[in-house]
Amino acid sequence: MGEVVPYKAGMQHGQGYNTYLQSLCVKDAVTIDRHEDKDPAFTREYDSEFIEEYEKIAKSMKISAGAAVSGWGQSGNVNVSILNRSEFESSTLTYEVKVLVQHQVSVLDKHSFNKIETSNPHATYGDRFIADFIKGGHFYARVSITAKNSSETSELKQSAELAMTMYGVSGKVTQEVEQAVSSIKRNASVKITIIESTGTNKNSTSGGSFAVQAEESSDLLAVKAKADQFYKDADTGKHSYILFAVLGKYRNLSNFGSYFVPFDYQIASLRSWALFNDFTLYKAIETMIKAVPAGKFKDGSERKTQLSNQAINIFENIRNRVHRIAEHPEVAKETPDHEKPDNFRLEVLKAIKTVDFHAQSKIIPNTDDYWTDMILPSKGSSEEHLFTFPAFDFGDLIGTEVISFGKKNSAEDYICLIGERATSVDGYKELSHFWIFPDSVEKFAMDMYAVSKVSTRNLMRVYAADQRDIENPRPHQRFWFFVPNA
């Protein structure tokens, strides 16, 4: 079987196709004498996988880099909800759950190339033609897990790895899996974006009455039930949606001769994943700029508008480059001229206001020598001042986490959380909260601090930290964080 690409409305047998942009070209580029198998065999697969690299999501959906960039935001071309970069960047862990059912295609079809007068055969014919269609069903769920307390990320990952074993042909919901799911519910927020493509009439030449459904969930066990049922439904012939187009090569047609030399996009497609990553990062940064209130920018709404327009101009630059590559694949070898996303993100961060927060020690009343450290937006008159640093007082910035200090209502017990507010803990009131970076940001957030807990009491310690506190943490250290350079 040849290369397969996602089905889109309007595709026809024998139609020309551009694999780089995944776009349709001239109809009847090839005449096909079809052999229809009325009861084809099918294959099915069902698994889950940890997603470390963002582009893997697009590849799982069989979307090319060129198609993702050129078709972004156009209905029916690219599923933006699945490819939400902001959500991916803000999640602690991302997994995908896939069930794929595919009916076998005929190998007995006959093909004949049709010569069409054209001054630009590459634009007319593309580099492939649609030889056949694969019917079946596709269940895809992107699972985004975000830790409530980022100091517990390693424990969360262990729970997630165990929970994900329930997906698959041999996956079971054991007691250990149920415990892992419960742990995830307690310690993280879960968002699951589901795309189902299926049909209801296996014998229809058009693929039957089909549905492409998108929904969201937060219930890992409910998704397990959905995926299991989707897999089982293949036995009853339910899945008959046209999933993919099978592509053929013009050069393999006996009467093609040397009518033209189709483009070879293989290297251009590989190189374009870097453009895809830059494009989606710019989209995420633009979304961030829109979310930040105008009053949080140092120069107000004018600066916000300027940065937003700058982002739009750059991802339009990337999109135009993709279209040039489609016309001239060798352009992919040239170094892009747009500003790198990390540099632009740095420019945006530097344009946003910070607020000074003050670390200080508070003596515990009616004790001989006990105190707790806190970080507050103002200096207390009776507290010992330790140090001051800038941070953010809102949470719309990519890569930031909230830190929250709290005190128990009925006792001199204190907590400090990262990734979670003290207001979520029963019996505690929040003393302060602010947003920092859990990881350093080169040229912007390099000043490091850490928080630890006193071994015998619920009292906190805060201190300036360095690389040694990462490699060899101090006793009872909870977490470290980075703030904008003073």
UniProtKB/TrEMBL annotation:
It comes from the Eukaryota. This is Uncharacterized protein. It comes from Alternaria panax.
